[in-house]
């Protein structure tokens, strides 16, 4: 009798990108000598061999049904060379090997309602976290905020009129897996979690929840004779970290979960070292489906930066030059005691540069 073979694990890593690459990109891999930016949404790369590849970037609504994806693939088959790629900001990029193919491709995308832009000193598509569709703890729908805001910022996506590139991000909880940006839109809980004591013993691993709290505000407790938890509300910073391991500690609230805006974050080492973003607006209503209050503040900051920033100044460079008092004066955002950053813990230890040190 044949011996049963052990079932081997299947290793899923990132797939080999070479198999999906445009043939010209494969041929010239690692041999590109320069690139230029002929117009908004279009990049030209030239290889040492003389080959050229033209990239056309278009914005999408991020969460797409398969009809939309098929439409984009049909455009790729008809007007491009059948190759596409998605960027981290959910833009789609088409690569073509001839200049003559660029304009018909742009017209086909615009006819179907996809804006072409997002390159160089434009407002690029907003990077965002998963929202209601995928994650288990969101207080808002990050991709909904992105769609409504990009509808408002359409002109800044298709034109290149900002002093430098502007990166935006949105995060749907305070844990903020979305990271920082020139302007970051982040949920802000303003009340400690409410505990449903009837469910804690059945649903939560209490030591894990106690360990999760960054300010040690959670203690095990007996409530109505049942093992449960209690929160020291004076210590609680309303971060929401206890909600994922213990859903009976509900922190999302239609009234008290708000939205905050942070500015001046930068991840690259270009020109100046990376910078942390800072809070400039808080307590904005979490107001689906169009989040108009958030859009108003973001547009106000962008308009001020556009008018006042010097060429090549990123948002953080601009604020560094004019100073925070001038930032609040020019944007007419109210300055409160909550804007004062008094945390000194990282002054000597946190490496904010991407350079390797030994
Ligand atoms: S920001 Fe928070 S809720 Fe949103 S996807 Fe990330 S961890 Fe989940
Ligand atoms: S919300 Fe954050 S700070 Fe407050 S109890 Fe939960 S984990 Fe602790």
Quick tags:
358 residues; alpha+beta; 5-stranded mixed β-sheet; 20% strand; binds iron/sulfur cluster
Structure description:
The chain has helices spanning about 25, 65-80, 100-110, 140-150, 155-160, 195-205, 205-210, 290-310, 315-320, 325-330; strands at about 30-40, 40-45, 50-60, 85, 90-95, 125-130, 170, 185-190, 195, 220-225, 225-230, 250, 255-265, 280-285. It has about 350 residues and is of the alpha+beta class. The strands form 4 sheets. A 5-stranded antiparallel beta sheet has the order 1-2-3-5-4, covered by helices on one side. The protein has a 5-stranded mixed beta sheet with strand order 6-7-8-13-14, with helices on one face. A two-stranded antiparallel sheet has the order 9-12. A hairpin with a 5-residue loop joins strand 4 (about 85) and strand 5. The mean pLDDT is about 90. The site of one iron/sulfur cluster has 13 residues, from loops.
How would you summarize this macromolecular structure in one to three sentences?
The chain is of the alpha+beta class and 358 residues long. It has helices at residues 23-27, 66-79, 102-111, 142-152, 154-158, 197-203, 206-212, 292-308, 315-322, 324-331, and strands at 32-39, 42-47, 52-58, 84-86, 92-96, 127-128, 168-171, 183-189, 194-195, 218-223, 226-231, 249-250, 257-263, 278-285. A hairpin with a 4-residue loop joins strand 2 (42-47) and strand 3.
